[in-house]
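INFO batch 0412 | record 1 of 1 | parsing
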Amino acid sequence: MRIIRRRPVVLWYAVTRVLILLLALNVLPYFNRGAITGDVKLYHQWLTQSFDHGQYPLDDKKWQYPPGAAAPLLLPHLLPGSYYVLFFLMCLVADVVVLVLLLRAAERADPENPPKGGAWLWTLGIAAIGPMAYGRYDLVVTASAVAALTVTLRSKRSTAVARGVLIGVGTFLKLWPAAFLVGAPKRRNGRLLFGVAAATAAVPTLALELFFPGVLSFLTNQKSRGIQIESVFATPFLAGKWFGWSGHIENTQYGAYEYIGPGVSLAGKAALAGTAVGFGVLLLIRRRAAVRGGFPFPAMLADVGFAAVLVAVVTSRVLSPQYLVWLLGVAAVCLARRETLMRTPAWLVLGAVSVTQLIFPLFYHSLRGGQIYSGLILMGRNAALVVAAVLALRALWRATGPASGLLSGVLLGEDRRDGAGLVQDEGAPLGREVGRGGVEHGPERVVDGVGGPGRVGADRLVERD
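INFO prediction complete | emitting tokens
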């Protein structure tokens, strides 16, 4: 029965991945071969010119990755055969791992009727990005991140250790999974998760710094980058070109097309400020959840993690297609559980991803040339991502607010008004999916049954190890 329930998404997944692999391998023609192989060529160049000689490509400004990135780049190189073919196959394996993890997470959430949203979002989202998704190593990082959010072992302590290791591995590979730590639980298991993640990422990084001085230079390279034309903060210059802005677009030493001209430096500072504000709000949400109660630990890690990655992406000075792979992976994990608060933001991300190939590579030349139609597509994509980020923060804020401090009020979409009973809140993300038939069957009873008497139920779920 489970196989029958899975069959539609698995069939669609298989068809789309076969097509993507055939396009990546050039068995089927793609309208811009360079969009698929451009980064893989750069990886191979680093291997032959630096890694094969026992060095990191530290003199190349395009090297903007943590030292752990060497592992997935080297793996296909160590095996016999074509580097390109093996690299694409490695990405396919990572892609399959993500789907399997999502299906297993959905079955654990509801064995009788597993939620299908996560698997469908992942299937359709990567298909929308197309073969470019297999031309970057981000699928490998995303597989590690999804594993960190979905792994469940026999005890909470062992689960915290496993999740910490996987978050640390993801951070060692490409930094962004560190955003999940904003949603780590409090007390012993939270400290354990945080400590294991920090040690897993920091120890090998520091060891590599001793043997290869300068491997942390990627931080300087990232800091020096400008405003890439696809980023949210490029919008004023994109529109400004239509009205006579005097700046121009340049392919910089960092391997991206960036705006150069008046106001760009200010926009870069605004982007950094936006990141600080966004993560400040997330930290405040975390504090509100701990004090007033809010959501249980799994939602805190996945939902807050998704909101954190969204904030990082929309406030970044760079927004390449591979960033959308990160969002799809974490959004899919959220949709693998019905009680997620991220339903609307997750589907908005899929909507934004759907135009990826129109922006790059199809209309990229016209975008650089300042054409209005391609600019409007990009603006629409970025607007959807910004709205998704705002809605994600809003959902978490409301879930931890004084007026809706109980988990039940958020999940059921209920609001008390003038003591006259409960009124349905149209803006609630889940409607009545969780509660059925009254308080005795609702989340209040589930929450109050966790951890024993003596504490407020929702708060206990946040604080309890």
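INFO post-check: Residues 56 and 205 are 13 Å apart (CA to CA).
INFO record closed
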